[in-house]
Design goal:
By secondary structure, the protein is mainly alpha-helical. It is built from 16 helices and no strands.
Length: about 375
């Protein structure tokens, strides 16, 4: 395991997450202030996350075909900085939405390539731990970003002030990425195909579609608290803090047993139930959301990396993102209507489908 490269890429993600998670911590409230409804917020974050994942079907194989992986990583991080900077000047809902979409596309461009670098650093037997360590460092940045956003809103700064302040850690992330490129000596070459076969990758990707569909997005939790903006950001902060231990634990469990694949659907059901309950249960939901998304960032990525290179990672991530899009729109509409029991029912059905398919993968 190349621990130096894992740590360096983790530090890049720490500062990059400081940039864009501080933005995401205030974006739902920002859209609310611009006149958005819950279904619009669900649509923007559902489509944004779907774009950030679905585009990986293209960006993953392209990264494999070109080889090297560093160029796509640099371009992705650079575009994310530009998107957050653009939000300072957004004048209406659709301009803000377009920049949120651009930020997600930038993540789609760099993530499959960067994940190949992490997978290479992990070697044959420590992929779960490599992704777990990286995700934990990544989440420390998310915690700092969310804490900064919460504090600034509490002190009556505007979302645009948060966007402007976040540009500094973004610049630090690019500088650290250049240092990682120069010092690591790791230059993996593209393989151009999915090593474990498209059938295996497609079967696993289908489980992730239903898992994404079962996820109640954190933006809807925030929307329900949007009348007190700093409180909504605090909820987001709780989710970011909880992802640190969740990532480390899930990485360890993945390397120990394939049954770790069954964890995700259990937590998405509990997440939907906490959203149904509302009130103080929304804060419990933030911690449950952290486990569910850590699963996607650690367990699902480590399993997909075993099946192939960036193409496999891109396919699996894309199906997860399409599930998030469908769930974001439907659950946003049901939130506007106040039909919370239907969210619990639909999320539970999708989660059960994912659990069954994952159980078959780990049994046969």
């Amino acid at each position: 395991m190349n621990i130096r490269l894992i740590i360096m890429l983790g530090l890049v993600s720490l500062f990059a997450d400081w940039l864009y998670e501080s933005m995401r911590a205030v974006a739902p409230q920002y859209l609310y202030m611009l006149g958005a409804t819950a279904v619009f917020v669900g649509f923007v974050f559902g489509l944004g996350d779907a774009l950030g994942y679905a585009a990986r079907v293209v960006t993953g194989p392209l990264a494999d075909r070109r080889g090297g992986y560093w160029l796509e990583t640099f371009l992705g991080y650079g575009l994310q900085i530009a998107a957050v900077g653009g939000l300072i000047f957004a004048k209406d809902l659709w301009q803000a939405a377009g920049l949120i979409f651009l930020e997600r596309f930038a993540k789609a461009l760099r993530t499959p390539a960067r994940d190949v670098l992490i997978s290479a650093a992990g070697g044959g037997k420590a992929k779960g731990r490599a992704f777990g360590i990286h995700a934990a460092l990544d989440q420390i940045g998310a915690i700092i970003g969310a804490a900064m956003a919460t504090a600034m809103l509490y002190m009556y700064y505007t979302p645009r002030d948060v966007f402007a302040t976040a540009l500094l850690p973004g610049a630090v992330a690019l500088a650290l990425l250049y240092a990682a490129y120069r010092l690591s000596g790791v230059r993996p070459s593209g393989r151009g195909r999915v090593g474990g076969g498209w059938r295996a990758a497609t079967a696993f990707a289908a489980t992730q579609f239903f898992l994404g569909l079962s996820l109640t997005h954190i933006s809807l939790f925030q929307y329900r608290l949007a009348e007190v903006p700093w409180l909504a950001s605090l909820l987001f902060l709780i989710a970011m803090i909880a992802e640190v231990p969740a990532s480390l634990l899930l990485g360890f469990l993945h390397d120990k047993s394939s049954k770790a694949l069954l964890i995700g659907p259990v937590f998405t059901v509990l997440l939907a139930l906490s959203f149904m309950a509302g009130g103080h249960y929304l804060f419990l939901g933030a911690a449950l959301y952290a486990v569910a998304t850590s699963y996607a960032d650690v367990v699902a990525k480590a399993y997909a990396a075993k099946l192939g290179a960036a193409a496999s990672l891109g396919l699996v991530n894309a199906m997860w993102g399409l599930g998030l899009l469908a769930g974001g729109v439907v659950y946003g509409f049901l939130t506007d209507m106040g039909i919370y029991w239907a969210i619990g029912a639909l999320a539970s059905a999708a989660s059960l489908a994912s659990f069954y398919m994952l159980w078959r993968l780990t049994t046969y």
